[in-house]
Amino acid sequence: MTEDWWRHAAIYQIYPRSFADGDGDGVGDITGIRARLPYLRELGIDAVWLSPWYTSPQADAGYDVADYRDIDPLFGTLADAEAFIHEAHDHAIRVIVDIVPNHCSDRHPWFQAALAAGPGSPERELFWFRPGRGEHGELPPNDWQSNFGGPAWTRVPDGQWYLHMFAPEQPDWNWDNPRVREDFERTLRFWLDRGVDGFRIDVADNLVKDPNLPDVATLPDGAVMPWGDQEGVHEIYREWRKIADSYPQRAIFVGEVWLPDPVRFTRFLRPDELHTGFNFAFLSAPWEPAELRRTIDATLSTHALVHAPATWVLSNHDVPRVVTRYGRAQTAHTWESSKTAHVADLALGTRRARAAALLTTSLPGSVYVYQGEELGLPEVQDIPEELLADPRWIRSGHTDRGRDGCRVPLPWSGDAPPFGFGPAGSTPWLPQPPGWAALTAEAEADDPGSTLSLYRSALRIRHAEPDLLGEDMEWLPSSGNVLAYRRGRIGCMINFADPPVPLPVGAQVLLTSEPVDGDLLPTDVAAWFRLP
Ligand code: NOJ
């Protein structure tokens, strides 16, 4: 384990609610995760990132934190978490935990105290409380909209309004207040003391707000939004970086920063700020060679400005699963398209997602695998409406089905739900499609043609080939329907269209995403090979 492991790590995202349920209550937990560590080791990943496991009323599946320094009983205890961190390390797996600094839960004791203390109190200064507009203060203080739909302000009984960029149960912290800063630094140290190797920072660019809280309707086109990407946010991360660097494990940060401008994005990755950030430009790109190449080039050139490694991400717990997205007519990710179900050719999507797996695991930088991606799970597009749990569904007035379709509990074994997710007879919190029997980890483990076997092979080769862990990458000459590049002596080629294309002369094939006939690469197939 070298110090710069994070520059080329393969990181697996665990969504604890849906990973493995040890106690049979239908929701995944730390006991379940511990039991699956051998699976993760065999997969060949270097680290896991866990979505929040903290004390939470679960209004937004744990992204509404009531106590940052304890574990929700749904998932276990602090002792379970500590045991898990140790055991993961014993399996040579590093642990990245989620930190949610933009907002907390409305049940957080400090927000409860702010409600009780009333207008003008120091307690309210920790959040964004403001009087309303209109004759009787009956209108929100400004025109900001919540990311989940509806106004970003909720009124409390004494007439003031508080800001929440997400659900009303998620009040935004006021980062201009030193107590907020101190408390988060305490939280960082709390988990660093327990041996974590990094933090994934939720909505990392949103912490600092323009204190004038201007209406966005008044801003010129192209203006930086007053709730995000403010200059002051960088100072916070410089302080955090010093704390992380002061620990022997040299913990790392990965930022969730959705910014359209790649240069502004990489400002978060300057050498004294965050180590890495999720590549949402790549996640959003269509399955189209010119667009992918443009995105890869833009990623590498902008990251080089700050000497930060890129990340390669196909999906996460917020967006439709890649097998389904790549099987739709529109293969780009947009928030608009993810609101509803769309017809998808899953055979086509699976073929493309398998080729994409060989793309993401062979580009320079670190790669993320969202749980279930390695099994080729599709989005579940037909969860009955009455079972939808994502706040987006209600907050959008039932126009956005939300993100539950990618959060369905994993199938581990057997022929029927709960597919080993929990003990026999337990009922997973979201229903699993009966057709997932062929997609269980157990079914795929022994099938050399499965997506699980493909991921295992790719990660094994990645580790064994120093050229794949370096920084060099060079495009190889190819037609417009093909992406081809070399990483030292290893080559990768993907054909996106008919007709099949020949591999370079003398190429010695290491791995292909589908069986190939001779040296001809069919449509939507990727190959890795050793160059002569
Ligand atoms: C981003 C997280 O990934 C998402 O799941 C959550 O709803 C929002 N941030 C709010 O915390």
Layout of strands and helices, then pairs:
Layout: E1 10-14, H1 30-35, H2 37-43, E2 47-50, E3 54-55, E4 67-71, H3 78-90, E5 94-99, H4 109-117, E6 129-130, E7 153-155, E8 161-163, H5 178-193, E9 198-201, H6 232-245, E10 252-255, H7 262-266, E11 276-277, H8 280-284, H9 289-306, E12 311-312, H10 322-325, H11 346-360, E13 366-370, H12 391-395, H13 441-445, H14 451-464, H15 466-469, E14 474-475, E15 482-487, E16 490-495, E17 501-502, E18 508-512, E19 520-521, E20 525-530
Parallel strand pairs: 1-2, 1-13, 2-5, 5-9, 9-10, 10-11, 12-13
Antiparallel strand pairs: 3-4, 6-8, 7-8, 14-15, 15-16, 16-20, 17-19, 18-20
Helix pairs in contact: 5-6
1-deoxynojirimycin binds at residues 60, 63, 100, 166, 202-203, 256, 317-318.
Tally of separate helices: 15
Mean pLDDT: 97
**Content of β-strand:** 5-15%
**Widest sheet: strand ordering:** 11-10-9-5-2-1-13-12
Radius of gyration: 23 Å
Q: Which CATH architecture of the largest domain is right?
A: Alpha-Beta Barrel
User: Spans with pLDDT under 50 lasting ≥5 residues?
Assistant: none
Give the biggest sheet: 8 strands, parallel
Task: Report how far the terminal alpha carbons are from each other.
Answer: 30 Å
Number of domains: 3
Q: Give the C-level CATH assignment of the largest domain.
A: Alpha Beta
SS-based structural class? alpha/beta
Short description:
The protein is an alpha/beta fold and 532 residues long. It has 15 helices and 20 strands.
Written description of the protein model:
This protein is α/β, with parallel strands linked by helices. It has 3 domains: 5-103 and 178-382 and 432-445, Glycosidases (TIM Barrel, Alpha-Beta Barrel), CATH 3.20.20.80; 109-163, Oligo-1,6-glucosidase, Domain 2 (Oligo-1,6-glucosidase, domain 2, Alpha-Beta Complex), CATH 3.90.400.10; 473-530, Sandwich (Immunoglobulin-like), CATH 2.60.40.1180. 26% of the residues lie in helices and 14% in strands. It has 15 helices and 20 strands. It has helices spanning 30-35, 37-43, 78-90, 109-117, 178-193, 232-245, 262-266, 280-284, 289-306, 322-325, 346-360, 391-395, 441-445, 451-464, 466-469, and strands at residues 10-14, 47-50, 54-55, 67-71, 94-99, 129-130, 153-155, 161-163, 198-201, 252-255, 276-277, 311-312, 366-370, 474-475, 482-487, 490-495, 501-502, 508-512, 520-521, 525-530. It has an 8-stranded parallel beta sheet with strand order 11-10-9-5-2-1-13-12. Strands 14-15-16-20-18 form a 5-stranded antiparallel beta sheet. The chain has a 3-stranded antiparallel beta sheet with strand order 6-8-7, with no helix packed on it. Helix 5 (178-193) runs parallel beside helix 6. The model has no long low-confidence stretch (mean pLDDT 97). Bound molecules: 1-deoxynojirimycin.
